[in-house]
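Lab notebook: predicted structure, single chain.

Context: the supervisor wants predicted structures on file for every construct in the current expression panel, including those that have not yet been purified. This is the next one on the list. No modifications to the sequence; it matches the entry in the shared construct table.
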Amino acid sequence: MNKLKLSDSDKRLLVIFLAIIIVVCSYFFVFTKNMDKASEIEEQNDKDRATVQQMEAMEANLPQVQENIKELKQKEANIIARYPADLKTEKVIEILQSIEDNNNSDFHIKSISFLMGSPMIAPTADGTAEGSTDTAAADTSSTEAASTETAASDGTEAAAAPSNPVSGYYATIGINYEASYTGLKDMIEYVNTYEDRMTISDTSASFDSETGGLSGTMTLNMYYLMNTGKEYIPPEFEGISKGVTNIFGGSADDAGDTDE
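Prediction complete. Output recorded below exactly as produced.
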């Protein structure tokens, strides 16, 4: 059997060819993989640098953000302060009595009709909220949303939505009245400056030439917010007797009013 003989130059060429193959294989199997990893690392570094820049900008704005949160919370507190925690018939009667007392009998309420517990924001057919009978009520929810969003933007953990969110309602009170012209103006001013939120949605007046007074109808909207942390304080009516001494009657000495 004849053996293949290689010259020294052929051997050198073969060695060089094998070396080239080893370099090419190293490039494809080692260097290329490392380049891919390096590219991934560089891409991640770019993301990290962008995150660091964003955090630095947020940190620089932190004092202003905290001041904004403080202002929003104060605005929210001021709005909530204008609304009672609940509105019941007894409270409505107290308010109407205060209206009469404020006008020194120049504004007299003859009859009252009640429609209690209507929501401030009525839901539409698709479940979204539409309209509001009071802009301050909308301000309350928007202020809360802004507070939550701002708190999240400064890197702090935003509080979860409360299980009982704040909800706003209003009572529609219809009244028939008799008043002097001055008494009617005083009544309107009293409503506009009343400590709890109250508006006049409709009114009518007619002049009585015989008495020189006015008579008509008026619709009042009285608003309240629930789940704000405030408590409902029932009114106290002083000087009103309740019950009798003897529920079965009897002589004049046995019967009579009592505060029991």
